[in-house]
Fold this protein.
Amino acid sequence: MSTAPVTTKFTVEQLLDTLEQLSPQELIEFEDQFFEIKQKRIASFADENTLNQQIAYQFPEKKKLRMRKLLSKNNAGTITQAEKLELDGLIEEFEQKSLEKAEAMSLLAQRKQKHKAVATEGKENHS
């Protein structure tokens, strides 16, 4: 007897509720795997405009200023636990956006190189 695969759909709220129950280590593992899935989707579906938007992204000035202030407090040893968590979140967000920007640049460069190679090959075949 064969079995049919079961597909379950979750709302974003249900997924977030589940994430809150993960241990710190499980959350790190989830983040890693989620990031890989996200990057694969971006790579396969992102058009040139989307990639250019990612490349042009600038971390908001308000967040940069807040991060600088918290870094100063951290260096001075006067940062509170709540501020340290906020700083960690800002740093993580900044690093994530920087990585996405670099990956978009790489993907766009690869696509342009591939397009250039195909165009060159086409010219050679017509000669």
